[in-house]
Amino acid sequence: MINSMVLNKEISNWIEEYPLLKNIIALEESLWINPKYSKFNVGMENISLSMTDVKDAEERLNRFAPYIAKVFPETQIDNGIIESPIVRIDNMKVELEKICNENLPGNLLLKCDSHLKVSGSIKARGGFYEVLKHAEDLALEHNILNINEDYKKLDSDEIRQFFSKYSVVVGSTGNLGLSIGIMSAKLGFKVTVHMSADARQWKKDLLRSKGVEVIEYESDYSKAVEEGRKQSKADSNSYFVDDENSKNLFLGYSVAASRLDKQLKSMSIKVDDNNPLFVYLPCGVGGGPGGIAFGLKLLYKDNVHFFFAEPTHSPCMLIGSMTGEHDKVSVQDFGIDNITAADGLAVGRASGFVGKTLEKLMSGCYSVEDENMYKLLTKMADSEKIFLEPSALAGIPGIVKILTSKEGKEYLKINNLEDKLKNITHIAWATGGSMVPENIMDEYYNKGLSLLK
Question: Which of left, alpha, beta for 256 (phi over 0: left; psi -120 to 50: alpha)?
């Protein structure tokens, strides 16, 4: 038996208290159902954020839309609103049914944040929003903008010169760095992205091509964040984007909910007592999936159920939420290496802010092996002609885990959903992939192909 200590308790005692930990430590795919999951009104107790905050964030993004349409011409078709499509993936559902050898009732949709314009990942939501809010705060404070003006005026040499006196700093495994870097540089900020060892080279190269300073580390995400925070503290004109604790990032992501609602209505998909919604969100530190899940809960209350998906080598939210210790524990504490092909999810310690906020709202977490993400990547490309990066496939097995596993079936039973299985809409949230260089996507695809043989 392992004798290491975590928070003054032997790991053997942790396993005794949370038996699923044995499987998690053994790097086995695991599904954890949250025993604290509560009705919406109970789950929202002691949470300071509300729909008012989410609407404020949405209005801010609307104010910036004319500016975004001007400086990023690819967004003009949507009038500067950066939003992703949602598509039915019936062919992929058939592939999943073949894999599990069971019928999977209900609809399966893919929310394609993988194809968000400008930075090609879910991080375009929270990352862009946080930078834009910071820019607005500075511009209003120094009277170079008022809230009723056309924000297109921000696209000027004079204002870029103003922003160049300020810097933006972030620690990232890749996609958040891309979003923060691209938007900050466009506005005129000096930007530094501290990148962990698992960040892909092409992401570093792309950032540098935008004039962003990239500092690389041989260590993981936590070290990149720590060094970024340290650099930012030393400069009074520096703004640190804190992926672990940022309410602004969280709110930027939460705006996705009202936009998704419009898309579902346009597809004649209902979300109500008889038509539940299940959402599967790939999770790194937790800000992106947390914000989206929170927005969905505000909108749909008890009719939406969300699950976070993580690699078996980086199940930080799973361990943090299951033990109730959140950011006080890391996967490394339990002997898990935090090394995964799903680079966007390679995080060893979850956000305490997100974990605590969603403590009674989250339905559960599950983990996925890297090899299975690669296999699903290839099957998604073949069946739907949609190309995603490995981490973006983590949400896909969610429907299988809930409908076919003992734990998933028990969850459906407890929540009186067994007679509504055909009415459930399942959404897998695809988090990134459209900006992956073709040669690297070919490598991903071929890796999956070889594993399927």
Answer: alpha
